[in-house]
Design a protein that fits this description.
This protein has about 90 residues and is an alpha+beta fold. The protein is built from five helices and three strands; from the N terminus they run E-E-H-H-E-H-H-H.
Length: about 90
């Protein structure tokens, strides 16, 4: 199984990635073992999707990193982002 995931970092920016072991990868992010997020802790998993094919997961990751993909994530996670505005 392959996973595309989105983390919300302490700097209020999203980190988008993909992996074959979601639990282990998230633990590495939270433990400060991932260069891209270690200076942006804490991180919180806010979204993930599972795929049977690696290329499908990678393609979805690349899409979420585009402007249109980020817009789509904000629509999908509308309640998450609206609750952030209220807090």
């Amino acid at each position: 199984m392959y996973y595309t995931y989105v983390l919300m970092c302490a700097d209020e920016k999203m980190y988008i990635g993909y992996t074959t072991d979601l639990k282990k990868r998230i633990a590495r992010h939270k433990g400060g073992e991932v260069f891209a997020t270690k200076g942006r802790l804490p991180v919180k998993l806010i979204f993930y999707e599972a795929f049977l094919n690696r290329l499908d997961a990678k393609r979805r990751e690349q899409y979420f990193k585009t402007t249109a993909g980020k817009r789509a994530l904000r629509l999908i996670l509308q309640r998450h982002f609206s609750s952030k505005a209220i807090s």
